[in-house]
Amino acid sequence: MPTPSSTKSYAAVLPPPGPSWAGSLMGISLLSSLLKIHGFPVVADFFFALAVVVAIVIIGGWLIYRSPSFKTEVMPAWAMLSMGLIALGTASPVVLGDDLWGFMFVCWSIGTAVGLVAYSLYITAILRSKAGTPTFAWGLPLVTPMVASTSAAQLHEHFELPAMLWVSFGLFLLTLASAPAVFTRVYFYYFGPKAQGIPLMATPTSWIPLGMVGQSTAAAQLIGASFGSKTAITMGIIYGIIMGIFTIPLGAIAHFVFYRAVFKGATYSPTWWASTFPVGTLSLGAHFLSQSTGVEWFNYFSLYLIALMLFHVIVSTIAGTIAVMRRIVGKLKSQLA
């Protein structure tokens, strides 16, 4: 674990409870869904309960501290809150049963509304070159519609609402039209011929593009199955296989830069949670691809990714707890001095 050089350094990377911490809600909520899907109900219940607590702390924390404000430059944080609410809502009927489909719809509605606002404001800032230095966090507002698309397809399956299927397809296209180009630009900025390399504090965000890869694979399988035609199903499978190919180099980059940064003592920040949700989306995509193709080893790969995600959740939780406790102790010492 990284050792902080001072309490002040931790204060700089530990914002108050609020949307900046919503990566934890995203990761824990999705983990609970995946554990239930793969037959670990007791552990799934534990993580779902934890996700509920995290959601309450994040929302309550924002109501108290109002940090961050709802401004364009901090839309990535609000995009995380959007995806966290959608992930929590999606997990509820999966983990606790069909009685909570209504709760899922409410979470999806709120999360999607916030996400579309974040998407609109941030894509405008990027196009106008007002989003600052390129970073993988640029992609957070752009991936939000894809997360909403997956849940919309599931809502369509349950409630049998044709309009929801077209909403799902539209949200899918919204991310596909923007995120790949933006991520390509960021990769070129960090790893191109004239690049300086990715800063230590930004290394956890290298997982974010994998979130689009995994989430779009899952969405493509659900949308293809919902349309029902052989062509739609085949297109979804082909899309998933192509995304699977992209997973190899992008995953290798994320593993290398993130683990190297941790071993070099990168200071903890909420960005470490970026190593959780994207891995979970890959697991979800592999699981649905297994269902679409009947290829069982896709499901085994999904299980491996759950193990990796669980490892990242544990590391992020322990490192975060240590960081918060050191900050509290530091403040107490300064007050007693």
From TrEMBL:
Main localisation: membrane
Membrane topology annotation: Multi-pass membrane protein
Subcellular location: Membrane
Gene Ontology biological process terms, A to Z: transmembrane transport
Annotated signal sequence range: none
Parts of the chain that traverse the membrane: 46-65, 77-96, 102-123, 135-153, 165-188, 200-224, 236-259, 271-289, 301-325
Pfam families: SLAC1
GO annotations of cellular component type: membrane
Domain of life assignment: Bacteria
Keyword entries, A-Z: Membrane, Transmembrane, Transmembrane helix
Name of the protein: Hypothetical membrane protein
Organism (species): Corynebacterium glutamicum (strain ATCC 13032 / DSM 20300 / JCM 1318 / BCRC 11384 / CCUG 27702 / LMG 3730 / NBRC 12168 / NCIMB 10025 / NRRL B-2784 / 534)
